[in-house]
Amino acid sequence: MSEISIDRLKRLVGRAQEIAKKSDKVSVQVAAEPLIEASDNFSAAEKEVKRIITVVGKETPESDQAMAELAQQFDEARTATLAKMPHAEVGGMASSFATADDLLNGVEELEDLLVIAGGVNSEHPLTEDYESVPEGQRWARRLLNVLVPVLEKAIKEHGEAVKAAEDLQKAKQARAESRAGLDFQFRAFRRVVRIALGSTSREYHSIRLRSTGGGSDDEPEETPPAAPATEETETSPAAPATEGSETLPE
Prior knowledge:
Blueprint: H1 6-22, H2 26-84, H3 100-117, H4 135-197, H5 202-206
């Protein structure tokens, strides 16, 4: 059983709301209330997904740029460190890291090594006053002064991109749940219309899903006898072939 497209569901829900506005049946009016609420919830969920997609489109390139700058600075600091400390364990080049998190971890390990080599601690914080520290520690501090700002920017931008991606997944899940709620309330409303106005009523047929080629409506029924076309009575038009195979999921 194929799932009805969201565009068609929206059209059917719109028709359902029009039926409720024009109907004098209290049951139809009451059943329309949760349908309208479900429709509003789905619309809000759709808007939230679109909003976060825009955020992701902004944060991802900024993160990629910051990580590229960090990779370049890491490679420079790494090779300079090896020139001063040939046996230092500094890991591979930036290109050897499989993920952004791996690169951040590698850079932080290099940072720790340089902090020790530069004698950086609470009593001797990192500054650009190289004259106040032993000459043998100055090279490490100079590298740190270049590397640390790039690292901190990359951490910030990467974190924002990851959060945006996580928010998008949550928003898509919320949209899927609200879609399921809208499906349920539409079916419930349609059944009320069927009971209140009759299975042969024009209102019911305007929101009834038809099927062909093996699919079936979730409320199978006998086809009403054809009536002569007059000004007062018209035969129900056949459903378009392009929409006939759609069915509403249980």
